Write a sequence for this structure.
C-alpha cells in the first residue's frame, strides 16, 4: 500500500513569537515520519493566518519560500479559531489522505502524531487527542473547562472529554464533516456526529511556548454558549419547566392571598406582591434571554453568510497528476 499523504493544519492568530519553533518542530515530525515510511513524501504543513495583526503571515510566506512542505492560507480578517481551522481543513482535504489539526502554540504534545498515524493505518477514521490532566492550565481555566464538560454531558452532547481540537481525521470523515454547513461552528461537537470508527490517544498538555492565550474569558464564555445552544434545545425545555413551576407557585400564593383577604389582614399583601413581581419578572427576562439566544442562532444561520474568506494562498503543487489519481480513486 502506498503511504498516506498527511497534512497538518495549524490555525495562527498573532503567533509570530512561536511560529519559528512550531514550524521547525512540526517539520521535524513530518520528515521523521516520511523517513520511517509511515507517510508519503507529499505530506505537508498548512498554516492558516486568521487575520493576524502582527507579522505571522510574513513568517508563513518566508517558511513557504524556504521549504517544500509548507503551505499557507491567509484569511481576509480575524474569523476566529474554529473558522480558521475549518478553512484549513477544507483546503487540506483536497490533497491529503489524512489531516491533523493542532494549535500553533504547541501545547499539545507533537510526539503523539506518530500514534495518530499508526491508528489511522490500523483503520481508524477519527483519532482524538485527549489530555491526561490539566496541570499546565491555570486553576481558573481548569475548573471552568471541567465544569463545561460535565455540563455538556448533562445536556446529552457527545463531546469527547478533555479533547480540544487536536485530532486526526481521514479524508472521508472530513469530507462528511464539511457537509455540516452551520455558521455557528463548534467543531468538536460535530466530529462525533460524523461517526466512523474512532479512538482516543492520550497525552500531557504543556504550557504555551510563547505569546499569550488568545482565548480570554469573554471569548471562552461565548464559545461555551455557542457549544450549548448549537447542539441542545434543553435550555428552552428548562424554561418551560421553570414556567410550570412558577405558575404552580403563584397558584399556591393566590390561594394564600385569598384566604388572607377573607380573614381581613389585607395590607400584609405588599410583601408577597413585591416578591412575586420580582420573581416573575426575573423568570420572564431569563426566558426571553434564552429564547433570544436561539432566535439569534436562527438569524445567523438563515443569512447563510460565508463562514470565512480567503485572501491569499501560498501553495506548492507537487506532482498533482499523481495526486489527482489518488484522490479520485
Ligand atoms: N486562534 C485563531 N484565531 C483566533 C484565536 C486563536 O486562529 O481568533 C488560534 C491560535 O493562534 C492558536 C489556537 O487558535 O493556534 C488556540 O488559541 P490559544 O492557544 O490562544 O487558546 P488556548 O490554548 O489558550 O485555549
Ligand atoms: Mg493554547
Amino acid at each position: 500500500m502506498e503511504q498516506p499523504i498527511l497534512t497538518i493544519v495549524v490555525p495562527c492568530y498573532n503567533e509570530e513569537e512561536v511560529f519559528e519553533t512550531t514550524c521547525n518542530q512540526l517539520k521535524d515530525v513530518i520528515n521523521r515520519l516520511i523517513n520511517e515510511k509511515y507517510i508519503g513524501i507529499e505530506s505537508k504543513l498548512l498554516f492558516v493566518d486568521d487575520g493576524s495583526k502582527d507579522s505571522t503571515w510574513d513568517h508563513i510566506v518566508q517558511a513557504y519560500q524556504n521549504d517544500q512542505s509548507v503551505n499557507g492560507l491567509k484569511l481576509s480578517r480575524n474569523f476566529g479559531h474554529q473558522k480558521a481551522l475549518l478553512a484549513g481543513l477544507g483546503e487540506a482535504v483536497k490533497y491529503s489522505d489524512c489531516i491533523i489539526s493542532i494549535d500553533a502554540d504547541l501545547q499539545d504534545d507533537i510526539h503523539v502524531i506518530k500514534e495518530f498515524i499508526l491508528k489511522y493505518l490500523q483503520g481508524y477514521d477519527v483519532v482524538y487527542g485527549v489530555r491526561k490532566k490539566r496541570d499546565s492550565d491555570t486553576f481558573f481555566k481548569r475548573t471552568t473547562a471541567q465544569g463545561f464538560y460535565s455540563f455538556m454531558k448533562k445536556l446529552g452532547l457527545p463531546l469527547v472529554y478533555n479533547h480540544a481540537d487536536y485530532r486526526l481525521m481521514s479524508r472521508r470523515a472530513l469530507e462528511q464533516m464539511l457537509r455540516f454547513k452551520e455558521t455557528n461552528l463548534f467543531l468538536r461537537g460535530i466530529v462525533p456526529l460524523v461517526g466512523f470508527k474512532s479512538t482516543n490517544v492520550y497525552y500531557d498538555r504543556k504550557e504555551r511556548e510563547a505569546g499569550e492565550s488568545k482565548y480570554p474569558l469573554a471569548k471562552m464564555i461565548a464559545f461555551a454558549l455557542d457549544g450549548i445552544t448549537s447542539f441542545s434545545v434543553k435550555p428552552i425545555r428548562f424554561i418551560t419547566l421553570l414556567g410550570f413551576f412558577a405558575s404552580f407557585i403563584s397558584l399556591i400564593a393566590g390561594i394564600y392571598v385569598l384566604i388572607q383577604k377573607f380573614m381581613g389582614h389585607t395590607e400584609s399583601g405588599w410583601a408577597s406582591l413585591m416578591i412575586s413581581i420580582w420573581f416573575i419578572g426575573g423568570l420572564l427576562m431569563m426566558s426571553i434571554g434564552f429564547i433570544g439566544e436561539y432566535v439569534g442562532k436562527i438569524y445567523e444561520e438563515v443569512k447563510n453568510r460565508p463562514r470565512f474568506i480567503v485572501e491569499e494562498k501560498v501553495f506548492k503543487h507537487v506532482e498533482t497528476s499523481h495526486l489527482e489519481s489518488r484522490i479520485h480513486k
Summary: The radius of gyration is 25 Å.
